[in-house]
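I am writing to request your help with a piece of structural work I have in hand. What I wish to show you is a protein chain and, alongside it, a tokenised description of its three-dimensional fold. Could you please explain, in whatever detail you think fit, how the structure tokens follow from the sequence? You will find the record immediately after this paragraph.
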Amino acid sequence: MIRTLSLENYRGFEEYQLRELSAVNLLVGPNNCGKTSVLEAVQLLVSRGDPRVLFESARRRLESSIREDRRRGPAYPLHHHFHGHTLEPGVHLGVSSSDGFGRVRIHIVEGEPGEPEDLFEVLSGTVRPLALLIRAGNDKDGTEFPLAEDGSVDWRSPAMRRAAAERPKWPPLQFVTADSLHAREMAGTWNYVIHHGRESEVVEAMRILQEDLQSIQFLAGEPTVGGSDGILLGFQPGTPRVPIGSHGDGMRRLLALSLSLVRAAEGFLLVDEIDTGLHWTVMEEMWNLVVDAAVKSSIQVFATTHSLDSIIGLAALLKKRSDLAEAVSVQKIERQLDRSVSFSAADIITAADLSIELR
């Protein structure tokens, strides 16, 4: 478990630290304070600096640029991962923990020049491209990953091909965005649930919103237009199953959350805007699902919210479940400080009782 998390020159943070982290950590704070960046930093640390994590982060945020050859689609330069939004030799970032996950440091360095392609390049000298030098843990030498001219990942480089071919050895990690999981991602996770015989757990969790739910089915080979097709919910025996999209965003959100809790066992669950699509009346039950699963399945959860209802629901759970007190913290992210403000279970309950604003 990560108890402390330190960020250096990572996105909007020049230096920042989170302490007193628990099994379940709810990140609060105003817009643009860096809550999502903390989730991404955890993913980068757990993956030991896998450059594909940087690419995924840029793609989720739509940090794209238009290529000259538009047929190749958008590129995702990595400038914005570094404090100051620049890519030049000497720029670096770091994410570290004192709890066994060590640290990841990423430096921008000059890579090896390519072969000159024309007479002009021969006379003027080739431009040395940029590369990511990634050091994880006690690796002093690190691995270089060349960048393309626009600062995006060069997928054609031998280093990237080796990284793509090797299966990641990091702990299980699920990242649920504010838009939930795509239907294809949920279908893949559902296959994992079936393989481990845990379908009933997911159905039971979904009854938080729909008490009469009997089954969940994913249609094999079904195209996923709009992200919901191919996921069907079953109710009374003998009646047609209903597309999940017919039941609103809350059902799809809860399904993504329930599936991810199963898949993240012995690992990490990162959730952006955890209460998206969920009514305030189910917040306590939602938190009971998340915290209980985190404790039983050794999952460390990092989630963000802007919702006061989410905090009140968490407080209501902690009042009833004193056994979960050590498993939960609220972390307030404030840019003007160099560390988060940590609130314990007792603090969360007191704040809810006295209408004290934690966000």
Summary: The chain is about 30% helix and 20% strand.
